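batch job 7 of whatever, protein = Efflux RND transporter periplasmic adaptor subunit
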Amino acid sequence: MAVSVLLLAGCGRKAPEAETATPVIALPVQAADGATAGRFPGDVHARYEMPLSFRVGGQLSARYVNPGDVVKKGQALAQLDPADTNNQLAAAKAALEAAEHRLLFATQQRDRDEAQFKQNLISQLQLQQTQDTYASSLAGRDQAKQQYELAQNQSRYTTLVADHDGAITSRQADVGQVLTAGQEVFGFAWSGEREVYLDVPESRIDGITVGQQAKVTLPALPNHVFAAHVREVAPAADAQSRTYLVKLTIDQPSDALQLGMTADASLQANKPVAPGIDIPATALFHQGEHPAVWVVRPADATLELRPVTIMRYGERDVLISDGLKAGERVVMQGVHTVSAGEKVAPIAPPHPEDAPQ
């Protein structure tokens, strides 16, 4: 009976359960280029973007292009009803013909009176009156000629023509609409030069100067890196966003750069900067008032809260100067849901774009 009790007691004991590892998003960190002054999101624009409009008013009778169409220089884009301008042109032409006829008659009269004056057949006063009539007729002809040329221009202006190769970016008027002179009909972007627009917060604008070098990458073109430079820095902040518009010019634009593509620009520092470790802002944890990160120990896959020294805060990342080494695995997300000594199973972010670059 004693042996049976011992056997039953032995069967009732359970083997100790292995500690369950908590899955966390953790990736190895990489050394950051010390020459990078900051990274900013942006989008691709044309070097020259402008509205297209008619120089004269009228009713829009035809539209030949739509947003997204690529057009060539000299191509007709839209047409106004030409009835009024055609009538003005016909009236100006008739006025010019009448002025030329009056000038011809005044010229003949002047020639006759000058010949008669030499023979003392007419008075000095009559000759002066004839010459005055000729001068008035000549000025009237010149004025009518200018009016005719103006009417010709007005007639040509009823056709909206592309003055450069480019693309239609927007449409602001429909057929049948009555337009005033200068009212926008299309948005237009020139072909050729491409730029990247950045919205830089006021805390970072002091480190950006005209001519500063930059590198531009695009999610849509993962295998391309474009060299660029700062062409323009806005002198004042936007009233709503309180950010400064910075324009980067792509040094060697490519046809693959499509308008509106999202971009990521890394500005090069004007002065040498010590290298550091770049981590996403979501990986930063605060131990009291001191910044820290969760590091996965490689020996046993447990977490260690390690203090770090911040070199620079960015829009989406933080540059660490001390406390981390390249290759160490750091928790990138969910830093407030883990604890020191906890055993974890590192996994990659569910979305590739969330991984540090």
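notes: The chain has four domains: 22-34+274-350, 38-47+192-268, 51-80+159-189, 83-156.
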